[in-house]
From TrEMBL:
GO terms for cellular component: cytosol. GO terms for biological process: dGTP catabolic process. Belongs to the Nudix hydrolase family. GO terms for molecular function: 8-oxo-7,8-dihydrodeoxyguanosine triphosphate pyrophosphatase activity. InterPro entries: Nudix_hydrolase (IPR020476), NUDIX_hydrolase-like_dom_sf (IPR015797), NUDIX_hydrolase_CS (IPR020084), NUDIX_hydrolase_dom (IPR000086). This is NUDIX domain-containing protein. The keyword Hydrolase applies. The keyword Hydrolase applies. Transmembrane segments: none annotated. Keywords: Hydrolase. It holds the Pfam family NUDIX. It comes from Alginatibacterium sediminis.
Length: 151
């Protein structure tokens, strides 16, 4: 089935659904990327939009493989964010479902350089700035062990 990807400037009558994935390396550092194009110049955990008919888990596995080449195992939904600040700033409303997943310890590759200029392992308590709202919320919720927090 062919699906249409909306440009950032296209408005919808309803929020779009995205997935973000929290992956930690053996040192407990978080994988983040510096975005290009959509969501530039923000740093963010890896992720993307949910395709029609796709589960959150399948979207997480697909997005990580497409963006980084990493194979992840056992993705589990841990958090959700309603990205109202992004809507107020850009007119683009999304809801992000955040998953935590294991990976085999491999290093990420830069497979979509038009979307991301670099990947970096960072301390979760010192996120690079500027940081994308959904990713920031995901990390704060993960650290606080909560599912949702009002922004």
């Amino acid at each position: 089935m062919e699906t249409k990807t909306l440009a950032k400037s296209e408005k919808t009558l309803y929020p779009r659904i995205g997935v973000g994935v929290i992956i930690l390396n053996h040192e407990g550092k978080l994988l983040v990327g510096k975005r290009r194009g959509s969501h530039a110049p923000y740093w963010s955990i890896p992720g993307g939009h949910l395709d029609l008919g796709e589960s959150f888990e399948s979207a997480a596995i697909r997005e990580l493989k497409e963006e980084t080449g990493l194979d992840i195992q056992d993705p589990i939904v841990i958090s959700v964010s309603n990205n109202q600040q992004t809507y107020e700033q850009e007119g683009y409303h999304s809801i992000s479902v955040i998953l935590h997943a294991k990976h085999n310890g491999a290093e990420p590759q830069l497979l979509e350089p038009e979307k991301c200029e670099q990947w970096r392992w960072v301390n979760m308590n010192a996120l690079p700035q500027p940081h994308f709202e959904a990713s920031d919320s995901a990390v704060r919720n993960y650290l606080a062990q909560r599912f949702y927090a009002v922004s």
